[in-house]
Amino acid sequence: MERVAVVAGGGIGGLAVAAGLGARGWRVEVLEKAPAFGEVGAGLSLWPNGMRALDALGLGDQVRVHALHDIQGGIRDLDGRWLSHTDTAAMEQRYGPVVMIHRAEFLEILHRAAPGLRPGTEVTGVDLSGPRVRVEHTGGVTEADLLIGADGIRSTVRRAVWPRSPEPRYAGYTAWRLVVDSGPLAAGGETWGRGERFGISPLPGGRAYLFGVAGLAAGGRSTDGELAELRRRFGGWHDPIPRLLDAASPGSVLRHDIYEMPALPSFVSGRVALLGDAAHAMTPNLGQGANQALEDAITLVTVLDAHPDVPAALVAYDHMRRPRTQMISRRSRRIGALAQMRALPALRNLALRLTPSSSLLNALAPVLDWQVPDAGRAY
């Protein structure tokens, strides 16, 4: 008998799990409330753990064709001096490569792989009273064996199934993101100041993904435009930051207050599972948001392959994913607090200079050592 899955949300996690389930014979509907699938104006780092998930979904090679490899990076001070430098050769040898890709190009790969795309369709209600889950949406009603809430930090599915779940909380800082034509860059990385930082990540095709972060009250906006705000805050920092900001256009800047999800007591209920930001939205300080959504996707596909009973499979998914993602969320929060320090940044910078690169590499092991679950050992 054909099994039916409804995926609420057409972002990275939703499309990835739809691709995995579709390849295994599920009939999938991906309900995306936006009128079109896609995202522009930002880059994405795919770490070794995320690439393992993509390889298991059969998409890794397509991503590598469109991605930039051998990325140099680290952390600098305001004068451009390295506080810590990433040993990319050692990282690749131990964990695997890190690659950079434009989000729009990555999403296009996922779009081609995912079946049942229904843009302009929003979930309006969830009924768990019957033997299957009844998903009400603006396009009608779908009876499904499984509902996956991959609809982001303000998840409709989470609010419908867990009405008492905590609300997202503001992390204390705002981020600006943009992509510019940069020409060749020798290296990327972040520069840490006092309560502010700026990041550069080279992208294929002579482009660069830029981001600025500042500790601000939530909900603010710049009176003379976000690009002007970026240039005012970061235009006097070390090269090549001023040159890259000069290459930006005002319409290219995205501004977002950074929110995260408090730890949830469960990611599943009956035939409903949360995935990605709906379950564990985290600050971007470890670059793990998309990578954890990809891990979620292949783990969920794997446990559903290993067990025909959907509720039992979801319990296994929750046991495998919730402790790990919440651990990574805590780590990311701590790194953000360190990076955004206003008091004694010189002591922070000295500590970074004195920390061996091998110690920094070892600290990544709990995040990057992840392996795709074995379907035969998923329980």
UniProtKB/TrEMBL annotation:
InterPro entries per the UniProt record, alphabetical: FAD-bd (IPR002938), FAD-dep_Monooxygenase_BioMet (IPR050493), FAD/NAD-bd_sf (IPR036188)
UniProt-recorded Gene Ontology molecular function terms: FAD binding; monooxygenase activity
Domain FAD-binding: 6-331
Listed name of the protein: Monooxygenase
Keyword set, alphabetical order: Monooxygenase, Oxidoreductase
Keyword flag Transmembrane helix: no
Gene3D superfamilies: FAD/NAD(P)-binding domain
Database matches in Pfam families: FAD_binding_3
